[in-house]
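FAQ
Q: What does a multi-component entry look like?
A: The components come first, one per line:
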Amino acid sequence: MARTQGSHSDITGPRIREAALRLFAQHGYAAVSMRQIAKEVGVQAGALYNYTPDKQSLLFSLMSSHMEELQAAWDAVPQADSALERLRAFTGFHIRFHLERPDAVFIAYMELRNLTEANFTIIESLRRDYENGVEGILKQGVEQGEFAIPDTKIATLAVIAMLNGVNTWYRSEGRLSLDEVERVYWGMVQKAVSK
Amino acid sequence: MARTQGSHSDITGPRIREAALRLFAQHGYAAVSMRQIAKEVGVQAGALYNYTPDKQSLLFSLMSSHMEELQAAWDAVPQADSALERLRAFTGFHIRFHLERPDAVFIAYMELRNLTEANFTIIESLRRDYENGVEGILKQGVEQGEFAIPDTKIATLAVIAMLNGVNTWYRSEGRLSLDEVERVYWGMVQKAVSK
DNA sequence: CTTTTTTCTGAACATCTGTTCAGTTATTGT
DNA sequence: ACAATAACTGAACAGATGTTCAGAAAAAAG
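Then the predicted structure of the entire assembly, as tokens:
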């Protein structure tokens, strides 16, 4: 056998990325073989190499796509004038964006150590850009006298870490709605940075 | 060759655990081979099996030891009367304990997916015990009217997630001392749960 | 219908994987 | 000094690993 019925790169390509994303998130990059990914897609392992030069590039591509989508989505959110309102918007955005992509988020945080040095540098830079955006809000709030923050860098990381935590426990069938989760977290974030 | 000069289980045993801990944290459980661990210790791979029945047991042992030490250390901290003071003590304890064992902490959070189902259940149970202790403080604070928390379960996870974040950026040679880090985080935690 | 291009198979590659175990040496006990 | 035990080696095992590639079949283009 060779080319199969209905095969098309527009279909197989995305399916490979979806399978890799799910499997990497579930078992870890190192624990997942190219043959497992191929099997999930219904294809032989060799066929994957029409879509990625190697396994490492596949991981990097998934991570950089995620980080760029994150940044682009946040850039698209209209910014209010007051720092408080901007921070509230960020809290909601971050929670919702991350809950929509648990696998990608998981990989972006857990598989950094499996990137080559060059690829790691790139992903880290993207992450810093995103963090700097948040720190900008906190700095603005301090300047305008809205926030009381001894160290905006730490506060940035603390806020993000706190919000990321939602991914470890939230289940859509659970006790709380997305709106309620957002409200509870916003309450804590808002108080944490206030005077 | 066979038994080597100066070999002793009291020495080799701990060295295997240390090597495994560092390597698992650095590259991930699945990415580290028994031969790599053995090489680090200066021994052949077969010798490891005098100290662990298999690789999975080694991982589980490292994780459960960490969780039990964590719980024991927290139990040993004298508890104040007021919830506010207990929460302050917890904040300091948690930050310091975690910063002293970055590798063990990393593994305990990242390698859950590489545990067998039975082992996962045990580790999860230990983690819940620890979390319940924190939630107890928050509940007490709410009852005594010291704290304003709409959902103590979420707040517990949020506080822990925020504090865990310190491990991702803190460096002992860095800008801030441990005391300063503790003070900054306590400021945020305290405000986040207050009225 | 014929040609070209795209997509995939299936086998092969060298190397690595966790684990077992008979045999060998160092240490400990008598 | 010798016997018993503890600690380790080195080879072997069956199978999995990432990656390459000639060839074959389906789809698209002419």
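Q: Is there any commentary attached?
A: Sometimes. For this entry: Chain A has two domains: 1-52, 54-193.
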